[in-house]
Write a structure and sequence with these properties.
Length: 149
């Protein structure tokens, strides 16, 4: 089956069987290795990308469900994502960095939807992203630094 999918603004036509996940497509076929794969069960949020501007777990999202849709990954460019990268670094919102791509994409989705979230809204939006290093305070602070106040 052929699927047309736009990734970070570039259209791709891919032949894929019904079992190919979005994460596998991004990493293995398109070479976009910024999206990390950890649990492959949808429990950690590490593989979060934006599908039509909404956060999804790429380890559970089938490419067949993405036909005609737009995906953004951590490799995408933009002021908001760049500002978040800088803020994560400044606040120690990353330690080992493995969860950071998923954290960043969840933060982008939140701030595009709600540029001035409360702390509680930041915590709720980031709840699906686990950080085994425990950098949660820095992550919340980073998102709040970039939020419009």
């Amino acid at each position: 089956m052929e699927t047309v999918i736009t990734v970070n603004g570039q259209a791709h036509t891919v032949a894929a069987d019904d079992r190919l996940t979005l994460g596998e497509l991004l990493r293995d076929r398109l070479g976009l290795t910024g999206t990390k794969m950890a649990c492959a069960e949808g429990t950690c949020g590490t593989c979060t990308v934006l599908l039509d501007d909404r956060p999804v777990l790429s380890c559970l999202t089938l490419v067949a469900a993405c036909d005609g849709r737009s995906v953004r990954t951590v490799e995408d460019r933009g002021r908001l994502l760049d500002d978040l990268r800088e803020a994560f670094t400044a606040t120690d919102g990353l330690q080992c960095g493995y969860c950071t791509p998923g954290q960043l994409m969840s933060a982008v989705a939140l701030l595009e939807r709600n540029p001035s979230p409360t702390t509680a809204e930041v915590v709720a939006a980031m709840a699906g992203n686990l950080c085994r290093c425990g950098a949660y305070a820095g992550i919340v602070e980073a998102v709040e630094r970039v939020a419009v106040r």
